[in-house]
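Q: Structure tokens for this one, please.
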Amino acid sequence: MARWQTLEPAALLTGRLLLATLFLHEGGSKVVGYAGAVAYAQAYGVPESAIPLAILTELGGGLALALGWHTRAAALLLAGFCLVTAAIFHSAFGDRQQLIHFEKNLALAG
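A: Here is the predicted structure, written as tokens:
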């Protein structure tokens, strides 16, 4: 067995945990700062009713990744979430920060 094959499980776990951390943190931030998340979303035309779905997607998908449960489905869901988020919230390409966030979301979707 090649050395990289013995490291593969640990590398996969590490990658899943790193990705999961981002989504769990962001979902938790929306729970703690719910009013701020609603105000931010509404400024972009997103209704308050979408915030619980965003929280569920981030926390549920992040937890699934962390636990290794239905990881492909969770990854596909989170990739779609990142693409939608990029399109809605980060498409002001004249603003360097928004462009960076857009690119980050595309990278995460990948």
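A few notes: Residues 3-32 form the longest helix (30 residues). The radius of gyration is 16 Å.
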